[in-house]
Amino acid sequence: MRVYLHGVGVIGPGLEGWLACREVLAGRAPWTETALRVPVPAMLPVTERRRCNAASRVALAAAEDALAAGDWAAAGLATVFASADGDGAVTHALCQSFAAREPDVSPTQFHNSVHNAPAGYWGIATRSGRPSTSLAADRDSFAAGLFEAALQATLDPGPVLLVAFDLPLPHPLALMRPRRHGLAVALLLGREPRGAALAALALRLERGAAASPLPPALEALADNPAARALPLLALLARGEQGDVRLGAVGARQLAARCER
Amino acid sequence: MRPLFVTGLCVASALGAGLESSFGALRGGRSGLRPNDFEPFPHPTWIGRVDGLESAPIAGALARFDCRNNRLARLALAQDGFEDAVARARERHGAERIAVLLGTTTSGILETELAYRRGAEVEALLAARDYAATHGMFSLTEFVRARLALEGPAATVSNACASSAKVFAQAARLIEAGICDAAVVGGVDSLCLTTLYGFRSLELLSATPCRPCDERRDGISIGEAGGFALLEKEPGAQGAIALLGYGESSDGYHMSSPQPEGAGALLAMSDALARAGAQPREIDYVNLHGTGTPANDRAEDAALFALFGDATPASSTKGWTGHTLGAAGIVEAAISVLCLERGFLPGTLNTGRPDPALRTHVVLESEQRPLRRVLSNSFGFGGNNCSLLFGRPG
């Protein structure tokens, strides 16, 4: 599969937007480990900003970042949201309420608990009727998401927005699944070169290899599934061509050749 | 699109394990719903529960996957010769050429919920669990790929109650692009506290067995189920029935209520027909999402009326199975295939007086009738819609 990359978005600790953090991703500026600042997506109506859960905020902020440089009609984009764990804080709050003698579950919390909550808020914000797929593949969720988004972009004329995100889980869920930092990465893909694409990606599945290592300075993000995107982002930030392996899709690795 | 033949199919739900149990219950008008006896829950409701899961742990090499959801997956996989059909497909195509795409909404969350209920023991209980193999969203798909020894592209799709319908669309794309020759699609959702309390909080849980399209309908009955289909380009011994089209859309309206005019539902149904090159009058039956909530049935009716008028028979089978949430897509796909194979048009169980405000042709009583094209609807929270069109190609 061959697709063009039209936009990149990044929201992470000390990684506040693609343009702002390109030097860090390129390895030309130091990364400072800091807490993730969860932004409020400007695209959401005010009432929804209040209801919206943290995972949706981070995911939508990365999506906004990826679209910032172009004049894309957000409502016209098909979307793929990829996350291993959705929103652990919502899961925790629900489970905690079940421990009470008379469980009291809020309707907002319940609808925020669905894995596709960010997709729902995206739809409300953009009033989009376009298809949206929310998927999970544990540590390889980014690769699964990119694979599906590229597949859609190859088969259909319209561009596809991929958002991969995960957040730390609160205690005691963190006992099962420790994670230091939240991170969201968004990529806008299309099959037409349209304007000045950032790169072309030639994707294939290959046997045997492991995923590419993270840029050494960003190793603290390694336990976040969305970080599997960082080797690709580092190539893009350096303006280089090259090959990266982005995680497993089934029994094989998703390999990407990044061409300028 | 090029038709994709259903060359293997299996299901387990409150109607029993296997396609024959399901069809027997449909034909006999026997509901699988019963008063809630699952977990202590202070509100009266009916559930579609699968018996025997508590006493059948997953042991041996795949023991790390043990949880209610994967037990239900294993039960479904063991039905209807499905594992043999997959083994033959693996020999034909190779393990790498068969995708595994499955839907779930709550995966193995039940055991985590119950751990929280144990108070101070929660930390020890959770620390001992294999998160990825049980609670995690990918758990179901990992379990099934291990069990079926498949190595093709794999993902869990979690788009609420459209999950196990959307996987058919993904499989069709993978096969169309030449990346796969076949796909195992389907999904599993099992009873848990999150959905019982959650739907109750939204006042969408009925105190009686659900009555889709009834004028007194007042909510859903939650069910659990698992099912799988094997999709291939060539018809097998079993399969003359194929997926002819799919349509996906979003409402872009509200997190938990459908767009009142059914605009998103109409988009999904129209897209499924267009992909199949079919006209509305060629559809012999629509298996409704038909949850039994006032809002769903009204919006779906509006969408159906816009596309079909009052000519096309439609019914909801959720009075039999309950709303199996992330498994609803595959359960109703299996029902659609059975009805096509056997010339059976199911009615709408539990529904006595159809809502006079609904304008489409809601079938109450089941009848024997040859069917060539059946459309199955699945809609989910977040305004996510998917329609699947099944039938005999040509």
Structure description:
The complex is a heterodimer of chains A (260) and B (394). Chain A has a single domain, classed as Thiolase/Chalcone synthase (Peroxisomal Thiolase, Chain A, domain 1, 3-Layer(aba) Sandwich). Chain A has 260 residues and is an alpha+beta fold. In chain A, strands 1, 2, 3, 4, 5, 6, 7, 8 and 9 form a nine-stranded mixed sheet that branches. Chain A contains nine helices and nine strands. Chain B has 394 residues and is an alpha/beta fold. Chain B has a single domain, classed as Thiolase/Chalcone synthase (Peroxisomal Thiolase, Chain A, domain 1), CATH 3.40.47.10. Chain B is built from twelve helices and 17 strands. In chain B, strands 1, 2, 5, 6, 7, 9, 10, 11, 12, 14, 16 and 17 form a twelve-stranded mixed sheet that branches. In chain B, helix 2 runs parallel beside helix 6, helix 7 crosses helix 12 and helix 9 crosses helix 10. Chain B is globular and about 60 Å long. Chain B starts with a strand and ends with a strand. The model of chain B has no long low-confidence stretch (mean pLDDT 97). Classes of the chains: A alpha+beta (260), B alpha/beta (394). The interface between A and B is large, with 64 and 71 residues.
Q: How would you describe this structure in keywords?
A:
heterodimer, A: 260 residues, alpha+beta, Peroxisomal Thiolase, Chain A, domain 1, nine-stranded mixed sheet, 9 helices, 9 strands, B: 394 residues, alpha/beta, twelve-stranded mixed sheet, three-stranded mixed sheet, 12 helices, 17 strands, 32% helix, 21% strand, globular
